[in-house]
Amino acid sequence: MDLKDVYKRVIRRQDVKANWDAFPDFKKATYRYIGTLASKDTSIPPVLMDSEISLGIIEAGPGPQAALHNHEVEEIFMPLEGLWEFFWGPNGEERVTLGPLDVITVPPGVLRGFNNVGGTTGRLLVLQSSAEADGAAFVDKEKLTNITETNS
């Protein structure tokens, strides 16, 4: 690779458009900088696909944002603004609340979900270990034995 080619990999914030349709399950904007972030929606493509990872930001108001689901890739979350509750396990029974610059990493295949539990719009940095991760496999709510209002 020519060192000048690295300039082609610079992504400016103004070049990343909010995609409100990438994950239609809840009302949230997804900013896909690198890779698909496991969304099949192509209406607003990621800025860069030539990478081994996915990187983006989710922006959402208070409330549920991702129901219990899994991916076959590692997923790393870092709240940038607000308070976010993460839950995982067969029924979402394990949980932790994280604030700005805290981190959680969820291994491939582990059921997980998250909610904005703060009182304002929050921003969440999301990193996945694949640029083209498959879409999320959501769990049918009726199959869960320990579901709560915060992780439904």
TrEMBL record:
Pfam families noted in UniProt: Cupin_2 (PF07883)
Domain of life of the organism encoding this protein: Bacteria
Domain Cupin type-2: from-to ranges: 59-126
Name the record gives this protein: Cupin domain-containing protein
Species this protein is from: Thermoflavimicrobium dichotomicum
UniProt lineage: Bacteria, Bacillati, Bacillota, Bacilli, Bacillales
